[in-house]
């Protein structure tokens, strides 16, 4: 990433997080009253966290990288929320996704649509009708402080890796709202691997135009294809894995339900006109999707095994 101009840079040590989950979660009170905590990162991260040995050569020697059963990402995230928000309550109820009222249908996102905010009675899951329109924005700015029950559906809140409760300059490939990491491009864009890089020749260490496992175009099928591990981040605390995004995706795409789902498609000769057609869920999956897990990571609850 910095190869072209590294000769102009001083000798530096950069803290790079190779994981896809953010690591820096600074409590709200520390951001509002910065003088109450040590924010000098030059003495090492452990010193900022109050665990450094002044005479040690490695100032970060006492850091514990994972949770080891004590604490979780969500516990740390709650402390970043302002006082008075739902996430700061000592007790909370877990509300199932899709129940009324829906937290997602009421969420205020950072990307306001041209039509204005959604009304409380709007159903974002209804099929095409006379007033049908596509979703104008995403939920990338979803407020977990205001709707804490929805955190159980996001795997990054269950990462095994301990978060950092101090303003330390960690460079990460991704982060969710509320994290204070500095975002940089993923290392996968700069370092090829046999597992993740298409066309990578591990013997000659080059990337070929066509992968050895590639299928001829006339042998391909018109389906959404996905394979992957059950999780890429961990399961701390355990017991919520079946609610992660990957699990919900595979469960949805492998369903044999007879219930109908509404498919919206454009008219072949009139691209600006859309029509709705009801198809059984199992038929929709059979004709459109091929998704499955290839590797189980962590402890899988007995009721989730098939």
TrEMBL record:
SMART domains in alphabetical order: CAP10
Compositional bias ranges of the Basic and acidic residues kind: 109-122
The organism's place on the tree of life at top rank: Eukaryota
Region annotated Disordered, chain positions: 97-132
All residue ranges annotated as the Glycosyl transferase CAP10 domain in the record: 131-300
Protein name as it appears in the record: Glycosyl transferase CAP10 domain-containing protein
Organism lineage: Eukaryota, Fungi, Dikarya, Basidiomycota, Agaricomycotina
